[in-house]
Design goal:
341 residues; alpha+beta; two-stranded antiparallel ribbon; 9 helices; 6 strands
């Protein structure tokens, strides 16, 4: 729990508690409970005192409850001040409470450190591939397509040698950038949480960023051997960057709607969500979101809010997809280099 007192002061005297009760879901015109105040049959569990900006408290247990519609089970995390007044209340449950509110989100989704870093996944999935586009374009695509790479070939070097060296330099630079970016984020998070995050979380996040950047750079290398001028390469790179990073979920939904999946009674909302989560394996900039989702057990990325495990996205599948995104563009580009297009 991250909590501050009035005007950001150190919290003193505040108590954290969990309260729950059974009620019925009537209709949208009836105000739905936002805390436990005034409710009947309330069960309360004191979690502990809030004595620091970051306080580690046990996740409250959810009792096993058998529900039938319109029954719902609500559980709240509340903070009270020294007088016992509720100053904060938030439901720890997900969903619209149509008889399924006895289930909590996965514990990882409530973990503060990974949760904070996961919130940066969208930003990270854009800026590092943007760096990959610019570095690859200026170091390889532009010199090759404008003819400025030709004078280098009069020296005792080969086309494949230039490709290997520049690909290696770009990949190394992007890997260092991924490490530096995660380090700076972790430094900021550590200031808030007063402790560093474990390497078991940071290392996969670096890996996800590296795949996002190097995989995208491979596409730019390949486009440099596909088009004959710099304009299409730059335009394609920008278009892929926007589609793969910022608008991927919406593009996938548009494709589904174009084929009429929303009118198919056999396909429900959860099936569409799982399809969107699985489709992230087809876009390198989505790998930071995938890795954080696997680590926390929960994805909170707009439309695709849910569990990667439920969608069938496993660590093995992510590893295979990552290897393909690195290897396939590299091998195709190498083939184009060897054939001297």
């Amino acid at each position: 729990m991250i909590w501050g007192g009035p005007n950001g002061t150190l919290p003193t005297g505040d108590q954290a508690l969990s309260c729950s009760f059974l009620t019925t879901y009537s209709n949208y015109s009836t105000p739905f409970p936002v805390n436990c105040t005034g409710q009947s049959g309330v069960s309360t569990q004191v979690l502990g005192s809030v004595s620091a900006y970051r306080t580690v408290l046990p996740i409250p247990a959810t009792p096993s409850t058998s529900l039938t519609y319109p029954q719902v089970f609500l559980q709240f995390i509340e903070i009270t001040n020294s007088t016992g007044a509720v100053i904060y209340s938030s439901s720890s449950l997900e969903g619209n409470c149509f008889g399924v509110c006895s289930q909590q989100p996965p514990p990882g989704s409530q973990t503060p450190g990974p949760g904070i870093l996961a919130s940066f996944a969208t930003e990270l999935s854009f800026f590092l591939p943007l760096m990959a586009l610019l570095v690859t374009y200026w170091s390889y695509a532009r010199p090759r397509l404008t003819g400025t790479l030709e004078p280098v070939l009069v020296r005792p070097v080969t086309r494949r040698g230039i490709f290997f060296v520049r690909y290696g330099i770009v990949a190394l630079a992007l890997l260092i950038a991924a490490i530096a970016e995660v380090f700076l984020l972790d430094l900021g998070v550590s200031v808030v949480l007063r402790e560093p995050l474990p390497l078991s979380f940071l290392a996969p996040l670096v890996g996800g960023l590296a795949i996002a950047a190097i995989g995208f750079a491979g596409l730019v290398f390949l486009s440099a051997h596909t088009f004959r001028s710099t304009g299409p390469v730059l335009a394609l790179g920008i278009a892929l960057l926007l589609v793969f990073s910022l608008f991927w979920e919406y593009v996938v939904l548009l494709v589904l709607f174009a084929f009429g999946f929303e009118n198919n009674p056999q396909i429900n909302t959860s099936a569409i969500r799982d399809f969107v989560l699985r489709s992230q394996l087809l876009a390198p900039p989505q790998f930071p979101s995938i890795t954080t989702g696997l680590l926390t057990g929960y994805s909170n990325s707009g439309i695709a809010t849910g569990s990667y495990a439920d969608a069938g996205v496993t660590a093995l599948a992510v590893g295979i997809a990552a290897a393909l995104w690195i290897a396939v563009p590299f091998l195709l580009t190498y083939w184009r280099v060897v054939t001297r297009d």
